[in-house]
Amino acid sequence: MDGLRFAFGTLTVFPARITRWDRDAARAGMLCAPLAGLVVGLCSAAAGGLFLLLGSGPLLAAVVTTAVPALLTRGLHLDGLADTADGLGSAKPAEDALRIMKQSDIGPFGVISLVLVLLAQVAALYELYGRAGRTASSPPRSPRPWPGSLTHASRQGVPAARPEGLGAIVAATVPTRSATCATAAVLVLCAATGLLLPPTTPSTPSWPPGRASVRRRCCCAGACGGSAG
Length: 229
Description:
Layout: H1 2-11, H2 23-31, H3 33-53, H4 58-72, H5 76-89, H6 94-102, H7 108-134, H8 149-153, H9 166-170, H10 176-196, H11 211-224
Helix pairs in contact: 1-2, 3-4, 4-7, 5-6, 5-7
């Protein structure tokens, strides 16, 4: 229970009162991190599926599915991505890169990374939701987050970058064997979930286009004085 409180209290907005703040609780919390990621992923998929059922369309459902994890984690993973991009993009020595990452503002590398990653997530979800919508027998799927990365980042042999902060309390707390077992359990769960859902197949567009479509294109070309694409 201390591990669950530690995981949900530090990684999500769900009400979880942290009763212990030591390395034993941090070890249990990092082992429970995949459970926190699973709950966030299920909430994200449920929100996207609900918007699809309400007739919002795949694009809006993709945006909602991408926004839910940011809300439920207070943007923790996005903030970490931006800080990492700013630190690595600066090409500075380790101490200067850590100082840049610790600053509260966001640099150009962080902005670019956030924009590209969010766009990639929305594009991938839009494609998945679009395929599911074109296949009546298949329910829409939502990609699951990879919740085992934090467990691996806290394994033994990986020191903290600096002695203060959250990283210092969780660094090198998880045994390598435990991290491997947690990763294997997540992979088995994801594989089992994928086997339970029927496959989605993209629909094949009809070609050549119908006569009505050809007439519309000819009318547009005539109105514009030429081919408009």
